[in-house]
Amino acid sequence: MRITFSLAAILLFLSACVPLRSMKYLIPDLGDSAKFENVTIQKSATPFYFKNNLANKVYDSLKTRLDTSLIGTKTNVFLVIKNDSIIYQYLSDGNTLAVRQPSFSMAKSFVGTLVGMSVDRGEIKSTDDLVIKYLPELAKNDERFKRLTIQQVLDMRSGFDFKERSFSPFSQITRSYYGANLKKIVGKLKMKNEPGKVFEYQSINTQVLAFILEKVTGKGMQELMQERLWKPLGAESDALWSLDNDENIKAFCCINATALDFAKIGRLYLNGGNWEGKQLISKKWVDITTNPDTLTKLRYKNQFWATRDFKFFKDSISTINALLKDKLDYPVELNPDGRYFYAKKVYDYKAQGMFGQSVYANPQNKVIIVRLGDRQKKVNLHSFVQMVGRSVK
């Protein structure tokens, strides 16, 4: 009996050990919420329901095209919503609209929205404030923290010394994902670039934002999410948000919710921050976040991604001349094949996560698309969503 108890204790310890857990699983998957402790984000007492317009014959050709195109893409749910009506839905075998799906990094857009709400309320005076105003303990790590603003963290231009892409079970991103104490990881952050100079997608930025939010509000992220977003947006179902081993919210990822409830962040932004007559977040914040010139230039703003569309040229002079003709002040970039290009002006934007998770919003066509599912190597699912969103008139 004593041996059995000791063995059980050892197995429990090993399962909770971050490096061993990361070696066992290493690559994230759709069932990850079961591997972690989670907190519940409670649904709204007054749910908002999108209208069902699936029988509309106007969209028969869209249905035919998507029914065929989505086969073999490992998509669990694909929703197209126009003017608050569901005009197309695809559900893989075994999935329903009530099944919770993982957000992965789509969670970042929710955190960015909570930052905007905190600015609106005066809890954060300005996104131009220094991070060390709210997290002064970071100042000792690197003198460049004296120049790091919240806005630079929001836009992934912090300059942190943090490697995002690594398959080592001992790397910063792997340890962050599989349960290491996120407060300790943030507390030890150093810099490798001058703040504001280089765009580099790093999940730790979102975690820094979360700790600032908790500091200025005196509330946990799950409480802020529930009170300021999930319930006011009329969530139909409870969501789960995963924790690290020390019960810190993994703010950079790991919200598990239904496709219909994820779609509501898209609707909020399409409506300028207004929800059924109530301004949940200022129109100013939404306009700054979704400004087409800003999105096209920066690729990323306030934890939302721009969609991208390019013009290619054989040389840099032709590229510059085309920019001047179009009256655009966008950067010229060099493609690996030797061609030069610039990103054309875009109006659509998205919350985006790995494996092709997406909440896409197109203000010109009043369209929201939610795609949730597994990794697909043969199809660029983000480009596919963008193509569909621009074709729905």
Automatic annotation (TrEMBL):
Q: Which organism is it from?
A: Pedobacter xixiisoli
Q: What is this protein called?
A: CubicO group peptidase, beta-lactamase class C family
User: Which Pfam families does the record match to this protein?
Assistant: Beta-lactamase (PF00144)
Question: InterPro entries attached here?
Answer: Beta-lactam-related (IPR001466), Beta-lactam/transpept-like (IPR012338), Diverse_Enzym_Activities (IPR050789)
Beta-lactamase-related domain ranges (all copies): 102-377
